[in-house]
Each structure stands twice: as C-alpha cells, then as structure tokens.
Design a protein that fits this description.
The chain has 22 helices and 19 strands. By secondary structure, it is an alpha/beta fold.
Length: 555
C-alpha cells in the first residue's frame, strides 16, 4: 500500500479556513438539504465500498478473497451506511424520531426501547432487542438542534480519527455534523490513512460544500490543529494518553497542571478512549453445546479485528464455585487455539504483549509463533484485586485474563461481579454478561439490578458488547461522569441515531444461543459474502437484497 503524504501546513490552514467560513451556513442548513447530503453520501460510500474493503484487508494482512474479508465489509462500509441511513430516518421525522417504546423504571429513570424498529431488524437480528437509558433526572428529549432556536454562530470541530476500525472516523464525523451541528476537520490516523482519500470521495458532497475537510499527518499535524485559533471543539477516539496530552500538555508539568486544574487546551472535548472490557459469566445449567457456543462468543470478542478493539473482551470473570467452570475454560482455550493468529498491524502490540508476559509467567500461549503476529494468549488465575495490571492496563492485543470470584450462586455472583467490574476494571465503555435463560428467569430481579448498577456505556447481554457500537441505534461512549483530570473511557457519545439529548448507557439483549451464527464468531465461513450482501441491502433496502442477506446468513 502506497504511503499517504502528510498534508502540508499551508494546505491545512487553507482547509481549516474553508470549513470555518461555512460553519454559520451549516447551522442554517434545513433538514431537507441535510437529508439530500446524507443520501448522496450513502451512494458515495457504496461506490467506494469494494476499494475500501480491499485497502483495509491489505493493511491488516487479510486475503481479500477469504471469508475474513467480511470483517472489513462490516466494520467499514456497512456500519457507515447504516449510520447514514438511520440519520436520514431520524431527520425525516424532524430530528426527533419516535422510538418503538418508552418506559419508566420504578426509580423514575426513562428507558427507550430502540431496537428492533421494523420487520427487517427482526429478520436480520432475530431475538435481539436494545435500549437506550436516559440519564436520571434528565428529560428524554431528542434532537435539540432541530427543535430549539440555534445560535447564529456555528462551530468547527476537530475530529482525531481512530486508527483501528475504519468506520470510526466517518461515524464520528457524522455525529458532530448531524447530532451536534458542528462542521468538521477530520485528521486521519496514520495507522489507517488509506481511509482518507476514500472518505473524500464518498463524502464528496460534504467536502465540496465546505462542511468537511480531511487532512493527513501525525502528532505534529494533530498538535497544530488542536491549538488552531479557528478550531472550537475537539473529539478523539483513541487513548486517554492522547487526551491528557492535548488537554493538560506534555512533559513533567502535566500532573502539576492537572492538580491545579490548569488546562493547556480549554476547548470543549468529547472522547472515546477504550476500556479493559470484562465478560461476566453467570453460573448456570449450561449444556455441552452451550459451553461450546459461548466459548466461541468469548473467542470472537477477543479475536475480531485481531483484538485491536477498545471493546475487545479482556477479563473473563467466572464464579469459582461453578461446577462447569473448568469445562468452560477448556472450551474457551480450544476456541482461541483453533483461530489462526492475525497480523499485529497496530503499533506497539508486541511490546504491550511482552509487558503482560513478563508480569504473568502463568500465561498460556495458544497460537504457534509466526512473524508479524501476536499469539492468542490466555492468562489464568489473575487476582481480582484493584490495581492489578491485567485489570487496569488496556492490552490492545490478543490477550484474555481469567478472574475467579468466590461465588457459586447466580445472585451472589452478579452482586460481586458488578462490584468487581465497576471498581477493579479500568474504564466504563463496555461490558458483556452471559446468562442462561433459566438462570435469567429464576434470578430476574438480580439480573435487572445488575444491569442497572453496571456503570458502563455499552452493555451486551448474551452478545459481545461490540454490538452496541455496531447497531448505531444505540449510543456509544463512556458511562457519564468522568472528570477531565481522570478521563478513563472518555466523555460524550457518538452513534445514538435516535438523537437522545441525554443518553446514559445502552443495553443490547440477545438470545443465549444466537441463530444464525453471529458475524463476530471466528469460524464464520461465508463472512465475505454476507458482509457484501448486508452492505448493499443497507444502502438500498429491497426484498431481493434482503433475501440475499438471509441466504448468506444461513449458508
């Protein structure tokens, strides 16, 4: 893949000035014009989709004709088109789309049931449902920018794009434009710089109108833009270290500035910054088939995208007294062992892996050594203690730590597991809960209490929490409340296609045994065919395209 040159400083200045000159016009752009822009972008993404997938495969060492290429269809064009289409739907309803159902919990908190919204959702995601919980004490209002009179002056947002998942930059851009009413300068991450030219083509109408500019470069370009006089707000998907460097400055003075509350960069800043994602396995009467299925669920959450996901499963949390614990662990090890190692394309992966290996001599390497890869690695017997390295350090490579809690009863385990996840695992972005249907029925109140008490922005019940990212109907971001001097998983949300003004967290529920086999499972043989079919249907839904998706899903 040919390297993409950094945008010269003078060209960055020109592009920033162009976008800044259009920020007030964007605020005044009416809904019909915005819908036309979104619709044009759908066609634009579809036009570049095949090249987008091929470039992503090349970067990640994937054969573009192999089933694994389907990952790139789903985490790139499909998700971006889904976001665009759901925004069109929201704006067609005046920016305040009516969710299928609103309910109120006993404590007064409002919950919007946002998925499934139609028959297609029910057919493609059989048995799935999703909720957006509104912050307690806040109204369940939607799309304020489309309902309230807007200030005459617009804003320019700098989006620092994530380098691991190619749909992150365009979807962050869309949220700032269509949910927060800000024009955007996107600096593409050097890791997946290939996405820049493709987005310029796909989002050409936004670029031509001056509502979006795309630039390339590394830390120097980022620093120039973050302190630019014409940049009003900032958004980053990446590392808390990047956030701290921008907000508090670098070097020895950073901690002193934090202590004084003296920000080096005072601009409003939203951010999604990662997590050490726990998987809470509730003890129950699992069959041998259940054990195998959920082991693939765990393995898929670790291996998808070579584990370079902020929501990758990282802490397998088990009940020490569960009679099937060892059988389940054997199945998880086996599922990881069967999965071929992936190219370690994200910088620093091997160094991070070696740091864990040095600390945990009991770690089990499950993949044969291969140049350019980090092997799938299982770390048993990690103490469930606050401050433990595996619980407080985001590995961002193919590691899975195992923690056992002193419990055997489901209700007792849930109480302990929630406390452990909230207090001992770093971050508040994502968590997965696996629970058998009979356990769910018998301990319904305990499970409901656990879901309510988990301080996470995205919760997956019987599905990988990454589904909260992918659905777009749900909000995606940290649980609210992190202070700038202890930012952890970040602040603010993206996706949130129902445009709720005050989302607290999203919860996705799935059947215990999902059918057909989920797309994140590592042994999906026809993923490329399915990914392409889903993308084409998402862009222009039709019965014929839907039948192609369903045929690929069950093949």
């Amino acid at each position: 893949m040919e390297p993409i040159a950094a945008t010269p400083a003078e060209e960055i200045e020109r592009r920033v000035a162009r976008v800044a000159s259009r920020k007030d016009d964007w605020v005044k752009t009416p809904i019909p014009a915005r819908i036309a822009l979104l619709s044009a972008c759908i066609d634009g993404v579809l036009a570049v989709a095949a090249r987008w997938v091929e470039a992503g495969c090349q970067m990640k060492g994937i054969d573009p004709t192999a089933p694994l290429a389907g990952e790139e269809w789903l985490v790139g064009p499909w998700d971006t088109i889904r976001n665009l289409r759901l925004l069109v739907t929201a704006l067609e309803q005046g920016g305040a789309p009516c969710p299928p159902r609103m309910r109120q919990r006993a404590d007064g908190q409002r919950v919007a049931e946002v998925f499934p919204a139609n028959l297609t959702d029910r057919l493609l995601f059989t048995g799935f449902r999703a909720e957006v919980w509104i912050e307690p004490g806040k109204p369940a209002t939607q799309g304020t920018i489309y309902r309230a009179p807007q200030a005459a002056a617009g804003k320019v947002c700098l989006v620092l794009g994530g380098g691991n998942v190619s749909s992150i930059p365009p979807m962050d851009v869309l949220y700032k434009l269509f949910a927060e009413n800000e024009v955007v300068v996107l600096k593409v991450n050097p890791v997946n710089a290939f996405i820049g030219p493709l987005l310029e083509e796909a989002f050409k109408v936004l670029v031509d109108e001056g509502f979006l500019a795309i630039v390339h470069g590394g830390a120097e370009a980022g620093a120039l833009l973050a302190s630019h006089a014409q940049i009003d707000t900032l958004h980053v998907t990446g590392s808390n270290r990047t956030y701290d460097a921008i907000v508090w400055g670098t070097g020895e003075g950073q901690e002193k500035r934090k202590a004084r509350g003296e920000r080096a960069n005072p601009r409003p800043f939203s951010a999604e910054l990662g997590c050490v994602t726990p998987i809470l396995v509730v003890p129950g009467p699992w069959s041998a088939a259940d054990l195998r299925f959920q082991a693939q669920q765990v393995a898929g959450s670790v291996t998808q995208n070579a584990s370079f996901n902020c929501n990758a499963g990282k802490v397998l949390t088990l009940a020490g007294g569960w009679l099937q614990k060892e059988a389940f662990v054997r199945e998880v090890r086996a599922a990881l062992t069967r999965t071929p190692a992936r190219k370690a394309y994200y910088p620093g992966a091997e160094e991070r892996w070696r740091g864990f290996m040095d600390r945990y001599p009991q770690a089990e390497v499950l993949s044969p050594p291969a140049a350019g890869t980090v092997p799938w690695t299982y770390i048993p017997d990690v103490p469930p203690n606050a401050g433990e390295h595996a619980l407080t350090t985001e590995a961002f490579c193919g590691l899975l730590a195992e923690v056992s809690l002193d419990a055997s009863d489901p209700a007792a385990f849930l109480e302990q597991a929630v406390r452990f996840a909230n207090e001992s695992c770093w971050g508040t972005l994502s968590v997965t809960v696996l629970v058998h249907p009979s356990t769910m029925r018998e301990h319904h109140e305990a499970l409901a209490r656990a879901i309510a008490d988990l301080r996470y922005g995205g919760i997956g019940v019987n599905c990988w929490s990454g589904v909260c990212y992918a659905l777009v109907s749900t909000s995606w971001g940290a649980f609210p409340g992190h202070a700038p001097d202890d930012i952890r998983s970040g602040t603010g949300v993206v996706h949130n296609a129902w445009l709720f003004d005050h989302p607290q967290k999203s919860v996705v529920y799935a059947p215990f045994r999902i059918r057909p086999k989920p797309v994140w499972f590592p042994e999906r043989k026809n993923l490329a065919r399915l990914g392409r079919a889903m993308t084409e249907h998402e862009a222009h839904p039709s019965l014929g395209r839907l039948l192609k998706v369903l045929g690929a899903a069950v093949a």
